[in-house]
Amino acid sequence: MPSEIPLSKPDITDLEIQLVVRALRSGRLSIGPMVEQFENLVALRAQCRHAVAVNSGTSGLHLVLQSLNIGPGDEVITTPFSFIASSNCILFVGATPRFVDICPRSLNMDPAKVQAAVGVKTKAILAVETFGNPTYMDQYANLAARHELPLIEDCCEALGATYKGRPAGHFGRAGVFGFYPNKQITTGEGGMIVTDDERLAAMCRSLRNQGRPLGASTTPTHGGSPTGSWLKHERLGYNYRLPELNAALGVAQMRRLDEITQKRHEVALRYIRRLGGHPALVLPTVDPESVMSWFVFVVRLAPTYTAEERDRIIAGLRRHEIGASDYFPCIHLQPFYRERFGLREGMFPIAESVSNRTIALPFHNDLTEHEIDQVAQTLEMLIKSESISRV
Questions:
Q1: Can you tell me whether residue 289 is helix, strand or coil?
Q2: β-pairing, 122-128 with 151-154?
Q3: Nearest alpha carbon to residue 35 among 19, 53, 22, 20
Q4: Cβ contacts of residue 219 below 8 Å, gap of 6+?
């Protein structure tokens, strides 16, 4: 029986282990030099002046929205085709997500629909670089500037991507990266806010650290605030800090980022060569001006296939020890969103059509040609079986 091919797995080498051990031996497990080094490396990659490490991408998005004073009565334009955190963070601050439909090629928001959605309650645009694709980020930035709105760039899936020569994280008032184990790089759990806005960065640093004063020292041994009190808190804050061990892992991964993204690019190209031309499959489309940073490899079935047929194919892949999933179920059709906002099927037909037919295939740095062929053969067999069952 063939060994399992997982949906994803992190790329950990001796360098990562060495730096984590170094952090352990330092005796400094929180609020230390590894976090600062990690912040500097990510800021440099995003070509931003400031970076603020946090314990997840979700936390980062929450802090950015709060720092921008977005709250009850406000609306934030965003996509229904994303991981749910990109909308949940809007609810965290008491605001309301205003969903718009997506482009069927890039799977990012349709810029014309973003423009049409801007209203008197709109206080920000939160744009997601779906699956690591940065297409339209410049158009969102231009729209945001025209309407004097902040653009929040959810680049949690896009570290290393560029669009028209500009890196992911550099388009918005702030960008947020995520480092969950299935991402391009991982810190186990973790995230990073990047921005050129010094005041916003300072506010995010305060909020991640229990609301301590702006510009306060981050270590209790140095007093913790301009008045010398580590226990002074000027605002409601959170414990969203990133531990030193996670940051050490991130430093090692950032040193290898070009190697990692190149590996992922090569795996994606192998899939495209192997599955390209299959009449039942739509493969990912990359804009010529985009350098995609591959987060996952998601194919979708042709429009003639139903969600039920897709689900049977995913179940079949799993029976053959091949990791697979549906990426992403539409957020507006999640039970909580349906109940709270009265959302329903048919409101965002492109996102729904795409969502009903997506299949995320195994994707990680060390996927071999043989494994890709095994995945492709099994997928083709299952598609053929569904076609036969229709007769």
A1: coil
A2: parallel
A3: 53
A4: 31, 32
Q: Could you tell me how many residues make up the chain?
A: 391
The last residue of one of the domains, among 193, 220, 255, is 255
pLDDT exceeds 50 at position 137: yes
Locate all alpha helices (DSSP H) within 1-136, ordered by sequence.
14-26, 33-46, 57-67, 85-92, 111-117
pLDDT 10s digits, 185-206: 999 999 999 999 999 999 999 9
Task: Give the C-alpha separation, 328 to 83, whole Å.
Answer: 7
Q: What are the tens digits of pLDDT across the range 365-376?
A: 999 999 999 999
- Cα separation, 249 vs 149, whole angstroms: 35
Question: Token pair for residue 373?
Answer: 């062929």
The domain total for the chain is 2
- 143: closest CA among 158, 129, 122, 161? 122
Q: Using N-to-C axis directions, what is the helix angle for 33-46 and 244-255, rounded to 10°? A: 40
What's at 227, amino acid-wise? T
Q: Alpha-carbon distance 62 to 159, whole Å?
A: 19
* Number of alpha helices (DSSP H) and beta strands (DSSP E) in the chain: 13, 13
Distance, in Å, from the CA atom of 391 to the CA atom of 376, rounded to the nearest integer, reads: 23
Cα–Cα dist 145/81, whole Å: 24
In whole angstroms, what is the distance from residue 361 CA to residue 326 CA? Answer: 9
> In terms of residue numbers, what domain contains 200?
14-255
- State the Cα–Cα distance between residues 65 and 61, nearest whole angstrom: 6
Whether 227 and 303 share a structural domain: no
Whether residues 62 and 192 share a domain: the answer is yes
Cβ–Cβ < 8 Å for 90, 114? no
